[in-house]
Amino acid sequence: MLEIKNLSAKVEDKQILKGINLSVKAGEIHAIMGPNGSGKSTLAQVIAGRDTFEVTGGSVTYLGKDLLELAPEERACEGIFLAFQYPVEIPGVSNLYFLRAAVNAARKYRGEEELDAMDFMTGAKGKMASLGMSDQMISRAVNVGFSGGEKKRNEIFQMAMLEPKLAILDETDSGLDIDALKTVADGVNALRSPDRAVIVVTHYQRLLDYIIPDFVHVLADGRVVKSGDKSLALELEDKGYSWIEQLAQPELAVRS
Amino acid sequence: MSTPTTDLDVLTSQDYKYGFVTDIETETVPPGLNEDIVRWISAKKKEPEFMLDWRLKAYRHWLTMAEPKWPNVHYPPIDYQAASYFSAPKSKTDGPKSLDDVDPELLATYEKLGIPLSERAALAGVAVDAVFDSVSVATTFKGELEKLGIIFCSFSEAVLNHPELIEKYLGTVVPYTDNFFATLNSAVFSDGSFCYIPKGVRSPMELSTYFRINAANTGQFERTLIIADEGSHVSYLEGCTAPMRDENQLHAAVVELVALDNAQIKYSTVQNWYPGDKEGKGGIYNFVTKRGACRGVNSKISWTQVETGSAITWKYPSCILIGDNSVGEFYSVAVTNNRQQADTGTKMIHIGKNTRSTIISKGISAGRSSNTYRGLVKIQKGAQGARNFSQCDSMLMGDECGAHTFPYLEVKNPTAQVEHEATTSKIGEDQLFYCNQRGIPTEDAISMIVNGFCKEVFKELPMEFAVEAQKLLGVSLEGSVG
Ligand SMILES: Nc1ncnc2c1ncn2[C@@H]1O[C@H](COP(=O)(O)OP(=O)(O)O)[C@@H](O)[C@H]1O
Ligand SMILES: [Mg+2]
Fold this sequence. Notes:
- The complex is a heterodimer of chains A (256) and B (482).
- With 256 residues, chain A is an alpha/beta fold.
- In chain A, 36% of the residues lie in helices and 27% in strands.
- Chain A has helices spanning 40-48, 72-77, 95-109, 117-130, 135-139, 148-162, 178-191, 230-239, 242-245, and strands at 2-11, 14-24, 29-33, 54-62, 65-66, 80-83, 90-94, 141-142, 166-170, 197-201, 215-220, 223-228.
- In chain A, the strands form 3 sheets. A 6-stranded mixed β-sheet of chain A has the order 6-9-10-3-11-12, sandwiched between helices. Chain A has a 4-stranded antiparallel β-sheet with strand order 2-1-4-5, with helices on one face.
- In chain A, α6 (148-162) packs parallel to α7 (178-191).
- The longest helix of chain A is centred in the middle third of the chain and has 15 residues, at 95-109.
- The two termini of chain A are 17 Å apart.
- By secondary structure, chain B is an alpha/beta fold.
- Chain B has one domain (3-477).
- Chain B is 21% helix and 34% strand.
- Chain B has helices spanning 35-44, 49-62, 104-112, 142-146, 155-161, 163-169, 180-188, 429-437, 442-453, 455-458, 463-477, and strands spanning 26-28, 87-89, 126-132, 135-139, 151-154, 193-197, 206-212, 223-228, 233-241, 248-251, 254-259, 264-271, 283-294, 300-307, 312-315, 318-321, 327-336, 341-350, 356-365, 370-379, 387-396, 402-411, 417-426.
- In chain B, the strands form 3 sheets. In chain B, strands 5, 6, 8, 10, 11, 13, 15, 16, 18, 20 and 22 form an 11-stranded mixed β-sheet that branches. In chain B, strands 4-3-7-9-12-14-17-19-21-23 form a 10-stranded mixed β-sheet.
- In chain B, a hairpin with a 2-residue loop joins β3 (126-132) and β4 (135-139).
- In chain B, α1 runs antiparallel to α2 (49-62) and α5 (155-161) crosses α6.
- The N and C termini of chain B lie close together (8 Å).
- The A-B interface holds A 12, 48-52, 54, 71-73, 75-77, 81-82, 84, 87-93, 97-99, 101-102, 105-106, 109, 141, 158, 162 and B 2-7, 428-431, 433-442, 444, 448-449, 451-456.
- Magnesium ion binds at residues 40-41, 85, 170-171 of chain A.
């Protein structure tokens, strides 16, 4: 589904991604872990098409298409969803309005009829209930005055409504209490299907107790330095990240 | 923004859609301003003696005045002798006529502007006074309003048919000595709208004036006077457009509002004069004096403006809160793009006890424009318990525009409560990327973000106007940012 080959990217003069290789098949869940500043968010945003980062080499193929050729909104309409590490506030625009615009943009892209407010609401109700989104929260302005946890929950709600093929969660677990964490995990697990894939970026292995990954990759200094199965996450939890950092030196790097 | 192509500059620009010229025979006086012109205008309109005297006093006073230099706007000197001070479509020079007599070319023009004047086609619930260059060419729904005692007509007709009301109220809110542009207007104003709502009447429809400048090389000076008698209510709308021309044109209007005991006036403007081209060539110089007097107890005047047009905007719709418990409101969205300059805001003068005022100003600057909020809140000695809340938010699009906020505060009564909040934000690449990532194209995202920013003001506009304002905002900002 997603094939990343030797991807490198920089911002201004700073090289952040230094040759990433990653292969994600439909139905799989991949976890990406790694120390702060290793490039996890950058990778997520480059996949989503943020032009702050300049791709300096490599390729990304998504469902047979050259992903790097697509505009961010086209990638979104092709089924890529990014749950932001820091969700953005949009004052004066209600959550409901925003989300309907998003859902309708994708429908339009696929040549489907746009949903009116009534139809949209009918579809939203069930998902709101399962993710604990109140009527009040959905009518408030996008992320304005939301607590950290509410923002993350809102990201998952958006994901549930947009039903992406490839969902990327960037530290959606950080700052969540255990109940909220379970809600997020439920949201992701509900989305799981043989034709969808999920990439979970996380700093802690805690979330991976609820979203069981098929693969775990460790990112350090802009490279994937180690890949393994779920046990790798536990190992990291045990030993911390410092032992990983020495792997970051190019000559020692393990290709996944 | 450092990246090679930012999301913000992918937009293409759209032309000003009201820039066409109507080909119609006009009567236009030769350029120049002197006492004879003032007399000629007054005679042309068959005005009573008191009007001519007033105009002449204004003209003579104007000769002693200088253009104000304090606004934060820059333009080459205006040659007041180069403009023509009166231009009217020929068919209309002999006083008011019924709609059936209006030149079809004019009807077509308003049709094209989206303001059908035939009552069958007209917007339900909106009466329109159509002002074309210097004169009013038609007023719709007059008969229906008359049944309720509401007078809604052109200013010229009011001078002829209701001179006692004009004499009683003209210049009592904006005196002819007020400021350079208002004084000039007082001397040469050609037409405008007049509206009187009698005691206890709620106007059953929105009253509106649509101003259109068509002629080249003329100044437009119109004057509006609205009187809401005790316990009456009225909602008034004002719209305006002009052709695209390379020369700048002067528009210096005056609006006076009077609210007596328990009366309410809501005055909404969508200002869309031609803003000039991308390089700042052409466009309207919009120097306008708008002021309302809350004379009665519990009276209320509410200004809502959406300013998207004009090369230069200079206006401060204000409220003088004389009656105890009277309320003044100012809701404003001012958008500047390309080389546009706006210096706009309000004055709230608290004189009566427990007077209250609210100021919500949203400035959006794009391109290489300059957008200034200037506001005065003045609480006089006797204004026991007065309260004001002001909020001024600026949004910048791109790196080359400027936003400025000048709040002035004078408080002479210790019981007054005054609150001021101000924010400046930049339309974020963050916000745009967030929208894009959810599948929303950049153009729609900008319009969504900007409309969200202006929401508190738009919700004050009458429904049809709010929809128009939202669209206008989108058009004004297209191709705006880099
Ligand atoms: N817009 C940016 N401008 C400059 N440096 C950036 C920018 N975004 C990220 N970086 C830098 O790139 C590195 C990787 O950041 P990030 O991808 O956010 O790491 P992670 O998500 O793994 O914590 C960090 O050193 C960070 O400071
Ligand atoms: Mg991160």
